[in-house]
Write a structure and sequence with these properties.
Layout lengths: L5 E3 L3 H11 L5 E3 L9 H8 L6 E4 L4 H10 L3 E3 L5 H9 L3 E3 L5 E3 L8 H12 L1
Parallel strand pairs: 1-2, 1-6, 2-3, 3-4, 4-5
Length: 126
Amino acid sequence: MRQPPAVTIYSAAQARAAIDAAGPRGVLLLSAPAAAGFLGPAWFAAMVVGHEPAALDCGADPGHALAALRFGIKRIILAEPSDGLLSCAAEVGADILPERPPSLDLFDWNLGKPQARAALRVWLAG
């Protein structure tokens, strides 16, 4: 099955804009790189509530990945996950991606502008 296009988000407003722009094709919402270490799983879960797929980037820190699993995050990005951590994820129905997929990074985007929303739709269309 083909993965939907990915967008790196920094706010609930960006998440909502990406979901709306994607329509039925869907979108993979990604946290910022290594965001689990400075914002934590609760913040990410609140931003993407009710939307799948969404992935929290844990960098290379297995402790952050375990915290995300305990919090109920179902898709995690973790560099070089151990077999034990992969097993823990499988037990709770979660996936661990060993690297970030290509994404459109919305860090400095003003999605209030029509041109930005149009560019987002183009990215999501593939």
